[in-house]
């Protein structure tokens, strides 16, 4: 039933096309009548081209509005352009009966399968890149950690996310790895940070004091503005005096209080083998500060622990 109905529609389409070609042929001089089918297809070319321009412009506007980088926008438009023209060619070949529609679809399927198998890794990166651009777990300028790699996001393309790592090496992380890995974005909103600090440290009196300090440091920032709260770990062996280590870390944080938006903090994080891990937290306005002041503070923390020994 369905096959019969589809066949009837195809026959009707062919009949309409034949009538159009015949009308065009009657309007042409004898030396152009052999090109009647091609000339009859010109209005379809024009209509499809106008549709193509509208679609591309709409896609570009949408991508620019959500902040997709220019390079990624160009890549997405290129892929859509290939798909669009592939469909156009298939439809025109079918209409002009150069090939039957079933043959065009079958050939397209075989070619698509072959290309997919040959470039499966690249296609995986492309699909993952579109997912990353759509979900936006981070943006250019953020400081992130992707799996075991961390750094400043410099570029997001359809294939790779490029990071500037703490040793100032530029590394390209395949977007398929981005999708499959744990991603930490150290960017946080000012108002959310206040809530986080109030929840993280349960003591209401201490929390209130810290929030007052936070407001003083952030008084020139507006609600909804964003900063970066970066954390790192320091391992302390059990042979160290816990009291001396805490006092040394407190002095260190006080010395560095003016280097960041608020005084650095440290707290017990976990036990590990023959020692314990302290986690430090610093807050900066600019993510690049993590690569400079943040790196200096990490060095100072390690030297402080060594001096305690």
Overview of this protein structure:
By secondary structure, this protein is an alpha+beta fold. It has three domains: 2-129, Helix Hairpins; 137-185, SH3 type barrels (Roll); 187-308, 2-Layer Sandwich (GMP Synthetase, Chain A, domain 3). It is built from eleven helices and nine strands. The strands form two sheets. The chain has a five-stranded antiparallel β-sheet. It has a four-stranded antiparallel β-sheet with strand order 6-7-9-8. Strand 1 (143-146) and strand 2 form a beta hairpin. Helix 3 (42-65) runs antiparallel to helix 4 (70-95), helix 8 packs antiparallel against helix 9 and helix 10 (242-255) runs antiparallel to helix 11. The longest helix is centred in the first third of the chain and has 26 residues, at 2-27. It is rod-shaped, with a radius of gyration of 31 Å. The model is unreliable at 199-207 (pLDDT under 50).
């Amino acid at each position: 039933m369905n096959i019969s109905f589809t066949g009837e529609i195809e026959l009707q389409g062919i009949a309409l096309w034949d009538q159009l070609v015949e009308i065009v042929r009657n309007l042409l001089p004898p030396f152009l009548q052999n090109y009647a089918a091609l000339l009859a297809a010109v209005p379809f070319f024009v209509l499809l081209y106008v549709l193509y321009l509208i679609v591309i412009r709409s896609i570009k506007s949408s991508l620019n509005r959500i902040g997709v980088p220019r390079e990624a926008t160009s890549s997405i438009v290129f892929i859509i352009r290939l798909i669009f023209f592939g469909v156009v060619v298939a439809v025109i070949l079918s209409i002009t009966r150069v090939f039957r529609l079933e043959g065009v679809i079958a050939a397209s399927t075989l070619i698509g399968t072959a290309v997919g198998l040959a470039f499966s890794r690249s296609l995986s990166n492309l699909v993952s890149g579109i997912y990353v651009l759509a979900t936006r777990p981070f943006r250019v300028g953020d400081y992130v950690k992707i799996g075991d790699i961390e750094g400043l996001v410099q570029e997001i393309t359809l294939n790779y996310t490029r990071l500037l790592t703490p040793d100032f090496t530029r590394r390209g992380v395949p977007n398929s790895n981005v999708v499959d890995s744990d991603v930490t974005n150290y960017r946080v909103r000012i108002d959310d940070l206040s809530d986080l600090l109030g929840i993280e440290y349960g003591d209401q009196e201490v929390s209130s004091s810290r929030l007052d300090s936070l407001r003083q440091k952030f008084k020139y920032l507006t609600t909804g503005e964003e900063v970066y709260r970066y954390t790192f770990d320091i391992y302390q062996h059990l042979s160290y005096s816990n009291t001396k280590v805490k006092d040394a870390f407190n002095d260190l944080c006080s010395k560095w209080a003016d280097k960041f938006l608020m005084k650095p903090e440290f707290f017990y994080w976990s036990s590990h083998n023959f020692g314990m891990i302290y986690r430090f937290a610093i807050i900066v306005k600019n993510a690049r500060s993590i690569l400079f002041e943040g790196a200096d503070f990490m060095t100072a923390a390690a030297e402080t622990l060594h001096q305690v020994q």
